[in-house]
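Good morning,

Attaching, inline, the backbone tokens for the sequence recovery test we're adding to the shared suite. The designed sequence is right after.
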């Protein structure tokens, strides 16, 4: 892939294009989170819908479907049309709302709101850092990926052990991993702009970038909720 050449006469144009590109990424990500929250809230407040999902084997479909959407976007983004990529992203965000409806049954609305605001501030600070720092964060990638694999394995083990201490440790490490991923992914998305010159490919990369930041945000929120969320009586 050819990089944008930062010639003196085009620096301002490139900077404007980068800001527009990143704004598009953040808009996709923010609207995706909003859609997830709306679907989760209304699902949690609909006894009939809750029974239809969590009272039947459909709950496994709802739980596993988001992974299918992520895999489809991750491995097929280059082959998909822009419209299809956008459709899959919105469908993913909506299905995530169905799967996250259960948090409203476990945690109090006040604690969910409080943790969401903490997540938003933490995410915002780290994303700004990733965007503005001159430090190359590429070396973080392998370390954060290993941490992510470790978290997944530990959560699978704890599904059988049901250890409160292990759950606390995993959640704490998870916060650190997704804080780091927020900065790392933001810088990676920023650098994508300089490498992609095809208009539709750049638009699709904005959707994929939004998916990455969405996952960082949601997982950071869930880890913080496990640590600081107040459970219902």
């Amino acid at each position: 892939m050819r990089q944008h050449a930062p010639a003196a006469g085009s620096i301002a144009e490139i900077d404007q294009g980068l800001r527009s590109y990143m704004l598009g990424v953040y808009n996709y990500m923010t609207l995706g989170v909003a859609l997830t929250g709306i679907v989760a809230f209304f699902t949690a407040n609909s006894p009939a819908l809750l029974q239809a999902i969590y009272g039947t084997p459909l709950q496994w479909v709802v739980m596993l479907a988001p992974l299918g959407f992520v895999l489809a976007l991750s491995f097929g983004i280059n082959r998909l049309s822009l419209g299809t990529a956008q459709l899959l992203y919105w469908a993913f965000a909506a299905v995530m709302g169905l799967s996250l409806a259960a948090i409203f049954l476990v945690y109090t609305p006040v604690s969910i709101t409080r943790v969401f605001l903490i997540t938003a501030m933490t995410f915002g600070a780290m994303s700004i850092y990733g965007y503005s720092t001159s430090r190359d964060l590429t070396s973080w990638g392998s370390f954060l990926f290993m941490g992510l694999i470790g978290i997944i394995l530990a959560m699978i083990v704890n599904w059988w052990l049901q250890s409160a201490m292990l759950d606390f440790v995993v959640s704490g490490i998870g916060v650190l991993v997704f804080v780091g991923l927020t900065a790392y992914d933001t810088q990676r998305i920023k650098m994508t702009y300089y490498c992609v010159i095809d208009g539709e490919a750049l638009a699709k990369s904005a959707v994929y970038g939004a998916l990455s930041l969405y996952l960082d945000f949601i997982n950071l929120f869930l880890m913080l909720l496990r640590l600081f969320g107040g459970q219902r009586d």
